[in-house]
Amino acid sequence: MSSSTLSEGRKQFIVDGVTQDCRADGRRCIDFRRFQIETGIVSNTNGSARLRQYGTDVLVGIKAEIGQPKQERSNTGHLEFYVDCSSYNTTEIDGHIGDFTTQLTKSLERIYDSENVLDLKSLTIIAGEQVWVLYIDAVVLECCGNLLDCISIAVKAALYNTRIPGVSVNDEEGVLELEISDDPNDEKKLSIDKVPVIVSCNKIGHRYVVDATQEEECCSSGRLLIAVNDRNNICSLQKSGTGSLDPSTIFEMIETARQAAVPLNQELLQTLKREERSNNDKCGFFAN
Amino acid sequence: MTIFHSCRGHGTYLQDNKLKASVAGFVEKVGKLICVKPVKSRYNGEVGDVVVGIITEVGQRRWKVDTYSRLDSLLMLSAVNLPGGELRRRSEKDELMMRQHLTEGDLISAEVQSVHGDGSLALHTRSLKYGKLIQGTLVTVAPALIKRCKTHFHNLECGASIILGNNGYIWISPLLKEDAENQTTKSDTSTLEREIVARLRNCIMALAERQMLLYDTSITYTYEASLNYQVSQHKK
């Protein structure tokens, strides 16, 4: 359904609903839709996760490869993002799919590729020469609004699931040799304590709404991407789309996002831990 | 199934002298003719069907309407009731005023007037029950899930009215108050009415997810069963 062509009457109905704190599906302004998440479902990756929601389906895979560090950060590993939306089409990206995916990729990169988010130092093998590079690929199979938040949740889950094989460095007469261990137990987990999820806060009417549907997104007069981690700290702030925001509005939006992020982060962590304990009942791609 | 007593209809094929379904769906028998109606398909219009549509284009004496059929449906200017006077000639002035009447993105309820040779539909709204839909929520489900009934307009006892379009578009709106004669864009929907609409929407989506047929009774029963839960807990 094309969202840019929503009639005035319907827009008004949505805006009034938000004002009364009762949205089209009965949610309150700070409620997220329920989602299901599964990790470790793509066997040829180091970590993967699939997030499913009504009308939304995002698959994230992480591959670790040994590569050269970035020039400006020679002592740490880094992340490379790629978002593929080719199978998903709305009027929002009509004909500009390249722009849209670049925008998503850049947003994710800005938020996650930082030492304050992940312990990138632990990805170093030989300082200045060889590091682990995490290639994080997201495939959007289906989307029903609030795409970036869904991707970020899946990315966090996939990072939780990522195992990096142990590497030993052998010094043979001045030539350094890397040896990747075959032992499946010799693996490193990544800490996701400081990894945030993105909460997009939309200003609709005079209130702020998280996890907006496509219809709600086209009633929004301004959107702010707020990355919040488990400790409820703000990691990043980005304004997205058109529209302008008053400084006081921004503070209120941040507060809304923090409120909404607490149950979201808790639920995600609980689900991931539960899934890790019972590792054998995966539905994978056979789930309906 | 042996072929001796049956005719091959849509959605079936013959293999080893047996009739097999080529699509997943419901079997329909009319006399000897056996068809399989697919669960997931675009809307195939029939004359007299009630549909809910979205205006996508305003053209020369016609509107193009999205009704989830394979081709755009048409609503002719001559097939709508214009304000003021039942029967009058459509003048050039009316043509210029078309966008004031219905514009892109507007939702309408209409009836299928005729089906063209290529399968595209001509709609009409020449009755007081049809027309523009303003305050409410649209839910889209597969067209096959809508049960064909005598009427597709229902005023449910729970306090909402519902239009089950044969094309799978369902419109849920708060009951119009008797005294409020003029239906304006101004909203006076209370939170309670909104919760009813939201609950109905969630019920319909739950039924559709389980591939249950949608008609007034099934929706009412689901609604009653859902009353044990707070609407803000559905979260879908």
UniProtKB/TrEMBL annotation, chain A:
MF (Gene Ontology): mRNA 3'-UTR AU-rich region binding
Q: Which CDD domains match?
A: RNase_PH_RRP42
Entry GO terms, CC? cytoplasmic exosome (RNase complex); nuclear exosome (RNase complex); nucleolus
InterPro entries noted in UniProt: ExoRNase_PH_dom1 (IPR001247), ExoRNase_PH_dom2 (IPR015847), ExoRNase_PH_dom2_sf (IPR036345), Exosome_comp_Rrp42_subfam (IPR050590), PNPase/RNase_PH_dom_sf (IPR027408), Ribosomal_Su5_D2-typ_SF (IPR020568)
Could you mention a single GO BP entry for this protein?
exonucleolytic trimming to generate mature 3'-end of 5.8S rRNA from tricistronic rRNA transcript (SSU-rRNA, 5.8S rRNA, LSU-rRNA)
Q: What is its main location?
A: cytoplasm
- Cite the entry's keywords alphabetically: Cytoplasm, Exosome
Q: Where in the cell is it found?
A: Cytoplasm; Nucleus, Nucleolus
Domain Exoribonuclease phosphorolytic as annotated: residue spans: 31-165, 195-259
Please give the superkingdom of this protein's source.
Answer: Eukaryota
Name the Pfam families for this protein.
RNase_PH (PF01138), RNase_PH_C (PF03725)
Give the similarity note: Belongs to the RNase PH family.
Q: What is this protein called?
A: Ribosomal RNA-processing protein 42
Show the taxonomic lineage.
Eukaryota, Metazoa, Placozoa, Uniplacotomia, Trichoplacea
UniProtKB/TrEMBL annotation, chain B:
GO-annotated biological processes: CUT catabolic process; exonucleolytic trimming to generate mature 3'-end of 5.8S rRNA from tricistronic rRNA transcript (SSU-rRNA, 5.8S rRNA, LSU-rRNA); nuclear polyadenylation-dependent rRNA catabolic process; nuclear-transcribed mRNA catabolic process; poly(A)-dependent snoRNA 3'-end processing; TRAMP-dependent tRNA surveillance pathway; U4 snRNA 3'-end processing
Record-annotated K Homology domain positions: 136-174
Spell out where the chain crosses the membrane.
Answer: none
Q: Gene3D superfamilies recorded for this chain?
A: 2.40.50.100, Nucleic acid-binding proteins (2.40.50.140)
Annotated Gene Ontology cellular components are: cytoplasmic exosome (RNase complex); nuclear exosome (RNase complex)
Which segments constitute the Exosome complex component N-terminal domain? 8-30
Q: Which UniProt keywords apply?
A: Exosome, Nucleus, RNA-binding, rRNA processing
Question: Pfam families, per this entry?
Answer: ECR1_N, KH_6, S1_RRP4
**Localization, UniProt:** Nucleus
- Where does the RRP4 S1 domain start and stop, copy by copy? 42-114
Q: Which GO terms describe its molecular function?
A: RNA binding
Q: Which PANTHER family match?
A: EXOSOME COMPLEX COMPONENT RRP4, PNAS-3 RELATED
- What family does this belong to? Belongs to the RRP4 family.
Report the protein name in the record. Uncharacterized protein
**Organism lineage:** Eukaryota, Metazoa, Placozoa, Uniplacotomia, Trichoplacea
